[in-house]
Amino acid sequence: MSAQDQDDLPRAIRNCEVGEGTQIAPFAVLSDCEFGRDCRVWRFVNCYGARFGDEVMIGSFAEVQSDVVVGDRTRIQSHAFVPSLTRIGDDVFVSHGAKFVNDRRPPSGDPDQWEPVVVGDGASIGTNATLMPVEVGENALIGAGAVVVDDVPPDAIVAGNPAEVIGHRDDAD
User: What is the pTM of this model?
Assistant: First the structure.
């Protein structure tokens, strides 16, 4: 399929500010979002009411809800779920299938009871990790499949269910 043919495929983009060089693939559904420059939004992405910095990538089948802020050069891989109130810093990697949770007692249905997830600059979130309302420090590493129920210190490596600190990024091998 040529690039021209792809341009003819449907997209639903409403009330969005899209920065220069940002590419939005067919079948994306975007509403009330702000995208910086040179972002890449893949197919079947659902985003509404979120703000994205420059050079952000959002993978296929990801959902990013309202009142989310994503920093520059952050990658959100396919099938990730990012709920309202989440703050993700610069240079963060969110791997495939990672899920963030803002509601400790779902379904509360009351946004006043929701709590934020905050991810510091340079952090990496492993495949299928689940983050409850916590703060992840700068450059922390969350292992694949981890269930994070407590705050993670900067530079810490955590894994398991519930996640525990198993090392630090600056430890010698």
Answer: 0.92
